[in-house]
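All the exercises in this workshop are built on plain-text protein records. A learned vocabulary of local backbone shapes supplies the integers on the structure line. Once this layout is familiar, the rest of the handout is easier to follow. An example says more than a description, so a record of this kind follows:
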Amino acid sequence: MTNLFWKGVVLASCLSCASLVVAANNLSHALTSTVSVSGQMTTNKFQQLIQQGFKSVIVNRPDQEQGNQVKVGQLRSIAEKSQVSVIYQPVNSGQISQANIEEFARYYNELPKPILMVCRSGTRSATLFNQAKSQGLIHE
């Protein structure tokens, strides 16, 4: 009986690991049909995302932030080859201001969609979008 229990535990662990691998393969997370967020960026990942049809990119991760692997200039170079505009709106994690939210809303309302937002984990980009939306600053 205990042998069967442990087989179940091992199977559940394997399934859990498999679902993490599938989640890691998702390049971005759609917040709506017009905006998605993505975390830690590499040039290869960004090229794949651009091929998915994004028309605009807003980079919320400061170039100098610790652990940042790709600078906005590199992303802009890749995006311009596909006629995709890149806006650099660096926001410090945990320090989103009302001015940041309003600036984002102006970009969102003016840029061609769909828009990809980029930061370290996707959280600060999602926060910007959700705050702007909850304040009625987003025009859809």
Summary: Residues 1 and 7 are 10 Å apart (CA to CA). The chain has one domain: 28-134. Residues 4-25 have pLDDT under 50 and may be disordered. The longest strand covers residues 35-38.
